[in-house]
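User: Hi! I'm working on a homework problem where we have to compare a predicted structure to a textbook description. Could you give me the structure for the chain below?
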Amino acid sequence: MKAVIQRVAHAAVSVEGQTVGATGPGLLILLGVAKGDTEAEAALLARKTAALRIFTDEAGKMNRSVLDIGGGALVISNFTLCADTRRGNRPSFDPACEPERAEKLYEYFSEQLRAEGVAAVANGRFGADMAVDLLNDGPVTLILDTDTWAKKV
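Assistant: Happy to help. Predicted structure tokens:
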């Protein structure tokens, strides 16, 4: 499971011109679910995401989490994060999880963020063509990949 996490002042996602999810200060999370991903990985990723200290304290240091600031999260499914780009110029999306299973894990990840205490968790619309509008704060952008945590370095 992969996530691109951006610290945002605000973010919103729309489908066919209608806003379907938004957050104020907090996180925009693009979530990619790969074949073989599990609920355990979704829970681990949610726990790590909620605890990431990427918001500044009064001294200007990144010492606060989204929980500490009472911020929200906007979670958007993004199967293209799982693309295999090793060959040629056209990405292969074969590594991405099948849609039915991916949607369940996407929803489970959002539930786990709520369970971790994230104040407000909004979502895009799974499988839809979405337009994302955001104001990246920093910019601060991180990539988390549960596969890298499983490998021994």
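For your comparison, note the following. The chain has a mean pLDDT of 95. The first helix runs from residue 39 to 51. Good luck with the assignment!
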